[in-house]
Amino acid sequence: MLNEPSPGERLAAALRRSPLYVDSSLASALPAAERRRLLGKLKKAPAPVFIVLVPLVKGGTWTDAEQLATVVHDRLGRDGIFITFDDDTDGLSGREWGGDHHALDAAGAVNIDRTLREAPLAAKLSRVADLLISGTAEQEYDRLSDELSERVNARKTTSPDGTPKANGSEQDDGGLAWALGAGAAGVAVVGAAGFLLWRRRRMASVRREGHGLLMPRTVFATASRATEDQLREQASREVIAFGELLDETSVPTTGERTRTLMARALDAYQAAGKTLDAARGAPDLAGVLVVLDQGRDALASAQAVADGKPEIPPVPLCFFNPLHGDATNKLDWRPLGSRKRLRVQTCRPCARAARDKQTPDVLTDHRDGREVPYYEADPTQSVWAETGYGQLREDLIPRILRGD
């Protein structure tokens, strides 16, 4: 008897027939005529767009937008823009693989646009498509975010009668009373929009290529094919390049957060150099690149904070082999011979292999005369096994500097 396809496989099969999937329970929210108009518009998008509208229910098949988009992308095997509900059916979420068309910004802009607050689902999806087609998603999100901030600040500094608060006070509860008086719906919209703004800044995909302070992702594409001697040479070049970046930086350290981030960047540089000097093989050389990647993230965030911008969310590298590059998939994984499950992040091929009960392309370490997955080495003798290259513990750099 053939195995039944998984929910993700069923959605992927449906998307191969049409890039728009609507769960039967939501059919009335998007009538057939609106679906046809939306499908016609999607053909003009700069990249493949897949819209997957299914209920997201805690404890159900699909619990959150990230899980849904990641699984469907993995099962579909095609890159593109994936639009889903945003952890409920009141907002939209956008994720993207293989490009940078600001899908998250497009969905976020629709979520905080007051003119679309009561709009039907078809209108919201159509607006997302328009922003993707015009290439103005990021600008529109920033414009609407600025408007939202102005409205929130105005409420904080204005009394119910429209006069400024004494000394610009924000600590009395009059502002709360006024906001409640303005209507619960308005409060909910401001709160949801503020949350979306925060989450967008925390979860937005890092635009790595072209950012001079971040580690170019081509480094890992090259490293994964290198011999040990070539990898050592590359690691040495990257240490030197990071040192030059630090020498040339003009990031002011007057703020506490910039000082913290710059200190982390400097610690990373020192840890990378120390690791390179003592490197015995590929696991140590991969560790050099991991630490440099963390250091560059800290430096770029310090510069962003100094410029009045949000920090750049760090992107971990593949747990099974950091030389694979960015870890785009989250995975509940149990090491062989262990009852404990770990929550790790991996590259897409490794995630697929693990889910299919196959062995991922693991970085190995030479121990006791044989090659073993690096994480199976004695953790008292390998900081990489102990920390999962920084995924299992956050103190990788301090451990290296201590000599662990």
Automatic annotation (TrEMBL):
Residues 144-172 are annotated as: Disordered. Keywords: Membrane, Transmembrane, Transmembrane helix. The chain crosses the membrane at residues 176-198. It comes from the Bacteria. Residues 155-169 have a biased composition (Polar residues). Residues 144-153 have a biased composition (Basic and acidic residues). The keyword Membrane applies. This is Uncharacterized protein. It comes from Actinomadura darangshiensis.
